[in-house]
Write a structure and sequence with these properties.
Elements lengths: L1 H18 L26 H17 L1 H22 L2
Helix pairs in contact: 1-3
């Protein structure tokens, strides 16, 4: 049971690193109260936005900036893990 508590604390700590404010860390849950006709609520502007998003994501992944960002995030995660296990 202690392992589960440590993992939950780690998840919250990592969430804190991402949101970096004093907000309470919330776990992701799927939306479960959508109306049955939810597909009709989608905007026709979304598919072109997805295309642009994916193009920009690919450009970022292929640049060195993404690798540097991920390395910094891994360092922050490692520090968070050390803090939790030494807590």
């Amino acid at each position: 049971m202690r392992g589960v508590a440590i993992l939950e604390e780690l998840q919250c700590c990592l969430c804190f690193l991402v949101i970096s404010d004093n907000s309470k860390c919330m776990r992701w849950q799927p939306i479960d109260n959508l109306p049955q006709h939810w597909q009709q609520l989608a905007s026709s502007e979304l598919p072109p936005l997805v295309t642009v998003w994916n193009e920009q994501a690919d450009r970022l992944r292929n640049s060195g900036a993404f690798k540097i960002f991920m390395e910094k995030m891994m360092q922050k995660k490692a520090i968070a893990i050390l803090v939790i296990f030494n807590h």
